[in-house]
Design a protein that fits this description.
This protein is α/β, with parallel strands linked by helices and 578 residues long. It contains 20 helices and 14 strands. The strands form three sheets. The protein has an eight-stranded mixed sheet with strand order 7-8-12-11-10-9-13-14. Strands 2-1-3-4 form a four-stranded parallel sheet, with helices on both faces. It has a two-stranded antiparallel sheet with strand order 5-6.
Length: 578
């Protein structure tokens, strides 16, 4: 270590004071000889393993491999548990707890003798939560994911996590698939530990962590059960020790230019719309402004290249075999800032020398893209003054310009109760609109935006319909779905003033989402507006509802985002008596 950057952990363990004695004694109580590790870095291993999170169930084994690497490089690995955010079990949404996990990790780093950290993630919100914490703590940090699960097969056909669930569920609802067949599918659609094997939020966010430079290049798409993942984990343990010595911190990696690269990659991947919210939140922790307009600006010149479900035909195993993130960046190289640093120590310019796609049908060449421009669009208009997003790569082209009457659901329970009612006055021209499902409205911003196509329409052969909400949708979902409408209804956004039968106009080419109601009528409805009181009077949900920012601001807490360069400074604890 240089004199300018002494080991942070030395404040706990060095010297002859009674406190140093106490801290070294604590190590001895765990069977660790502090004399053996004197002057060596303490490496935290933030493990989001949990039996309540099937996506992260493989992380115990990875943690052991990281420890081997840390020890081999001369560091002292100390593993600690964190909250684990699993999409399957957590209700109403794992998103409600993303900020809590970020606080958990940040404060653990702040309050303990840690010089550098390896962050073990996998499921959707664990990745951005750890990156938010790392951006705020600004200790040398490296992220490593657990990888996508194996691809299951049902009756000879490959089935993908999430995406095929929604497709086959529509067949169940219309009687095309029996309950027995549905149960048979249940047994094989998720046939190993690991994250979704489609380009859902988990694979999107771990891929973007790699693009940002926070994850070892080429590692994010390695399958969960592939031995190469353990080899990368051991190498990560060695590398974090080197990063501490070099004082390579997130502040040197997470730059404005790196976020532009990540946005380009998101668009080329056909990745999850959730990534928009997460990238804004991570950038905000470094006081980097990432307006929705920047996403749309870059979408105009970024081709859609990756043929992976739900926007394409293949799964994550094929994506990795075709070259993964480095191959995508190689195709985009003239659009990227290749001088951005990565945790590997070099820049992307150094790392992409040999990168290329080995399967042109999975990762398309620039001259033969799936689409010439990006896979999502940002909408504005009187219904979304602060913006909304739509995943154009997963939408029906014929619905991207549409005018229709609104079927209004006041909340999720109302939608569930009425959407399949045979008397619902819905046609293929209708626009299904869901209110009060945003950050404050639930609270927690759940994935309720892919409103089911009403059964009566499915029976008529209608498989897609325009849907609009202040909610999110799973990265594995699909359809012509407008999401993240901001401000949300619960915050008094225009969505709150839409009534049954109002005409809504969607024009993606014009980047417009309009409510065809005159200004005076909207103003009168606004005067009558009364926000629905939250049922939460205490605890974390109350904290969330009181302090969460809107979707276009990343849904972080207002008090966690710095407002100036001075506020970026991480306040180290005074090492005294507890």
């Amino acid at each position: 270590m240089t004199k300018q950057h002494p080991l942070r952990s030395a404040a706990w363990f060095s010297g002859e004071s009674d406190l140093a004695f106490q801290h070294r004694s604590a190590l001895r109580s765990m069977g660790i000889d502090p004399d053996r590790y004197a002057g060596r870095p303490v490496i935290g291993i933030a493990n989001s393993w949990s039996e309540l999170n099937n996506c992260n169930i493989t992380l115990r084994e990875l943690a052991d491999a990281v420890k081997r690497g840390v020890l081999a490089a001369g560091g002292l690995p100390l593993e600690f548990p964190t909250i684990s955010l699993g999409e399957e079990f957590m209700k109403p949404s794992a998103m409600l707890y993303r900020n809590l996990m970020a606080m958990d990790v940040e404060e653990t780093l702040r309050s303990n003798p840690i010089d550098g950290v390896v962050l073990l993630c996998n499921c959707d919100k664990t990745t951005p939560a750890q990156l938010m914490a790392a951006a705020s703590a600004d200790l040398p940090a490296l992220q490593l994911n657990g990888g996508p699960r194996s691809v299951g097969r049902w009756r000879g056909t490959a089935v993908g996590s999430g995406t095929d669930l929604w497709r086959y569920w529509d067949d169940v609802r219309t009687g095309k698939l029996s309950r027995e067949e549905w149960q048979e599918l249940e047994a094989c659609i998720a046939c190993s530990g690991g994250a979704c094997n489609t380009m859902g939020t988990a694979s999107t966010m771990t891929g973007l962590s790699e693009v940002l430079g926070m994850m070892p290049p080429g590692s994010s798409s390695i399958p969960a059960n592939d031995a190469r993942r353990l080899a990368v984990a051991e190498a990560a343990g060695r590398r974090i020790v080197e990063m501490v010595a070099a004082d390579l911190r997130p502040s040197k990696i997470l730059t404005q230019r790196a976020f532009d690269n990540a946005i380009r990659a998101l668009l080329a991947l056909g990745g999850s719309t959730n990534a928009v919210v997460h990238l804004i939140a991570i950038a905000g922790r470094r006081n980097i402004k990432l307006p929705l307009s920047r996403f749309d600006e870059l979408a105009q010149t970024t081709p859609f290249l990756v043929n992976v479900s739900p926007s394409g035909d293949y799964f994550m195993d094929a994506f990795h075999a075709a070259g993964g993130i480095p191959a995508v960046l190689s195709e985009l190289s003239d659009l990227l800032d290749l001088d951005c640093l990565t945790v590997a120590g070099g820049t992307w310019r150094d790392l992409l020398t040999l990168a290329r796609s080995s399967d042109a049908d999975v990762i398309r060449p620039r001259h033969e893209p799936l689409a010439e421009t990006g896979s999502l669009a940002v909408l504005n208009g009187n219904l979304a003054p602060n913006g909304a997003v739509i995943k154009t790569s997963a939408a029906s082209p014929g619905l991207l310009q549409h005018r229709g009457p609104a079927i209004v659901f006041e909340n999720y329970d109302d939608m569930q109760a009425r959407v399949n009612d045979p008397d619902l006055p819905v046609t293929a021209d209708s626009v299904l609109l869901l209110k009060n499902a945003g950050p404050k409205g639930v609270p927690g911003f759940p994935e309720w935006g892919m409103i089911p196509v009403p059964t009566k329409l499915l029976e008529q052969g209608v498989t897609d319909i325009v849907r609009v909400s202040d909610s999110r949708m799973s990265g594995t979902a699909f359809g012509t779905v407008v999401l993240h409408v901001a401000p949300e209804a619960a915050a008094g956004g225009p969505l709150a003033f839409v009534e049954e039968g109002d005409m809504i106009v969607l024009d993606v080419a014009a980047r417009s989402l309009q409510l065809e109601v005159d200004v005076e009528t909207i103003a009168e409805r606004k005067r009558r507006f009364q926000p629905v009181p939250s049922p939460h009077r205490r605890g974390y949900p109350r904290l969330y509802a009181d302090h969460v920012l809107q979707a276009d601001e990343g849904c972080d807490f207002d008090f966690l985002r710095p407002n100036s360069e001075e506020e970026l400074d991480f306040v180290w604890p005074i090492v005294g008596r507890s």
